[in-house]
Design goal:
about 400 residues; alpha/beta; Aspartate Aminotransferase, domain 1; Aspartate Aminotransferase, domain 2; 2 domains; seven-stranded mixed sheet; three-stranded antiparallel sheet; 13 helices; about 40% helix; binds pyridoxal-5'-phosphate
Length: about 400
C-alpha cells in the first residue's frame, strides 16, 4: 500500500510506549479467551477514592464543564501549594504550579519549555520509558547514566560525573523509581546537587511514587539535601498513582515562576487546560489526605514480601528489594542463552515473549527501560493472581534447558 502522506522526521526517533503496548497485547490475548495474568500494568489495582468520584459527578451536575484557566483552577493550585507547605515545608505560590493532563504531560511541557537542540539531559538507567522520548521530542539528547544492581540501583557519584558534559542542561531523578522501586540515597542526591550547583543544571524530580514507600518514611528529596537549589528544581507529581486516578489525567508541576509561565504558554496553545471535571475530582482527592495511599502501600508491602520470598526460592533469580512504588525488577539473565524447544532466550524481550506465550504471563522486558538483564513485574494485582503467576513463572523457568 502506498502512503500518500509522509510523516514528520522526529517520529523515526521515538517508539510507542512499550509498557502500554504490552498491556494492549495482554488485553487482546485475554479478549481471545486466553487466561493471561497481567503483570505489566503501571497503575494501582484499586478504584479511585469515593470522595474524588463524587466530586467529579458533582462537577458535571453543577455544570462545571467549561474551559478552566490554562494552569488549572486556582483552588487546586492553592491546595497543591498547601500540600507541599505541610508535607515538606517548602513555600511555593500558586503561580509556581501548573496542573496538566497527567504527570507525563507535565514532563512534556517542561521539556518543551526548557530544552534546545544540542542540549543533553541525563537520565538514570533503568529509566521510565517516556523520559528519553519526551527529551527527544524537545530536540534534546538523552544521555544515560547506568545504575547498578550492586548498589541497589542507587546512583554512583563517579558514574554521574563520567556522563556529564559541557552540553548537559539537566538531569531527571525518580525516587522511588519505576521500574526498580529504588530510592536515591542522600549521598547520591548530594552528588546531583553539587553538579547542579556547579554547572547550573536543572533537576527534574519525578515524585509520582512519593506516597508509596515501604519504610513508612518519605525518601530523601533533592530539595531536602539542597534547599538552596529551589530555583533550579522542577517537581513533577500528580494524582494518578497516589489516588489510583490514572484515567482522570491530572498531574502537576512546581518550579520557578518563569518556567511555569513558559509551560503555561505551551499548554495554552496545545491542550488549553486539563479537564474541568477531573480537576474537581483531583481537588477532592488531595483534600482527602494520605490515608488512601497508606492503605494501598500496606497492601503493596504484603504482596512485595510474598513475591520476594518466591523469587528467593527460584534458582537463578536475583531481585533487589524495592523501597517503594509497585514494581519488582528481577534479574533473569542467568537464563539468557537457554532454550525452550527451538526458541533461544537471548535477552529480556525473548524472555517476556516466552513468558507471555508459554505461561500466559504478561511482563515488560527490561530492554524497554534500558536494562536488558531484567524483566519488570507489576504487583498492582491481587494476591490470588500473584500466587498463580509465581507458580507459572517457576514452572516456565524450570522448563528452560
Ligand atoms: C505513572 C508515572 C508518571 C505519571 O503518569 P500520569 O498518569 O501521566 O500522571 C510519571 N512518572 C513515572 C515514573 C510514572 O511511572
Amino acid at each position: 500500500m502506498s502512503e500518500k502522506i509522509s510523516l514528520a522526521d522526529r517520529l523515526s526517533k521515538i517508539k510507542p510506549s512499550p509498557t502500554l503496548a504490552v498491556n494492549a497485547r495482554a488485553k487482546a490475548l485475554r479478549a481471545e479467551g486466553a487466561d493471561v495474568l497481567n503483570f505489566s500494568v503501571g497503575e494501582p489495582d484499586f478504584g479511585t477514592p469515593e470522595a474524588a468520584c463524587e466530586a467529579g459527578k458533582k462537577a458535571i451536575d453543577d455544570g462545571f464543564t467549561r474551559y478552566t484557566p490554562v494552569p488549572g483552577i486556582p483552588e487546586l493550585r492553592e491546595r497543591i501549594v498547601e500540600l507541599y507547605e505541610k508535607e515538606h515545608g517548602w513555600t511555593y505560590s500558586p503561580e509556581q504550579v501548573q496542573v496538566s493532563c497527567g504527570g507525563k504531560h507535565g514532563l512534556y511541557n517542561m521539556a518543551q519549555a526548557m530544552f534546545n537542540p544540542g542540549d543533553e539531559v541525563l537520565i538514570l538507567a533503568p529509566y521510565w520509558v517516556s523520559y528519553p522520548a519526551i527529551v527527544i521530542l524537545a530536540g534534546a539528547e538523552p544521555v544515560f547514566a547506568p545504575l547498578s544492581e550492586d548498589r541497589n540501583f542507587d546512583l554512583d557519584p563517579e558514574v554521574l560525573k563520567k556522563h556529564a558534559s559541557q552540553k548537559t542542561r539537566g538531569i531527571i531523578v525518580n525516587s522511588p523509581s519505576n521500574p526498580t522501586g529504588a530510592v536515591l540515597s542522600q549521598e547520591a542526591l548530594e552528588a546531583v546537587a553539587e553538579m547542579a550547583r556547579e554547572h547550573g543544571w536543572v533537576v527534574i524530580s519525578d515524585d509520582i511514587y512519593d506516597t508509596i514507600c515501604f519504610s513508612g518514611e518519605r525518601p530523601p528529596h533533592i530539595l531536602d539535601v539542597a534547599p538552596d537549589l529551589k530555583d533550579q528544581v522542577l517537581i513533577l507529581n500528580g494524582v494518578s498513582k497516589s489516588y489510583a486516578m490514572t484515567g482522570w489525567r491530572i498531574g502537576y508541576s512546581l518550579g520557578p515562576a518563569h518556567v511555569i509561565a513558559a509551560m503555561n504558554k505551551i499548554q495554552s496553545q496545545s491542550t488549553s487546560n486539563p479537564s474541568s471535571v477531573a480537576q474537581m475530582a483531583a481537588l477532592a482527592a488531595i483534600e482527602s489526605g494520605r490515608g488512601f495511599a497508606d492503605m494501598m502501600t500496606d497492601a503493596f508491602r504484603e504482596r512485595l514480601d510474598y513475591l520476594l520470598g518466591e523469587f528467593a526460592s527460584m534458582e537463578g533469580v536475583e531481585c533487589v528489594r524495592p523501597s517503594g512504588a509497585f514494581y519488582v525488577f528481577p534479574n533473569l539473565s542467568a537464563y539468557y542463552g537457554r532454550k525452550a524447544g527451538d526458541r533461544v532466550i537471548d535477552g529480556s524481550v525473548a524472555m517476556s515473549e516466552y513468558l507471555l506465550e508459554e505461561a500466559l504471563l504478561a511482563t515488560v522486558p527490561g530492554a524497554a527501560f534500558g536494562s536488558d538483564a531484567y524483566v519488570r513485574f507489576s504487583f498492582a494485582t491481587s494476591m490470588d493472581v500473584l500466587r498463580e503467576g509465581m507458580a507459572r513463572l517457576r514452572k516456565a523457568l524450570a522448563a528452560l534447558g
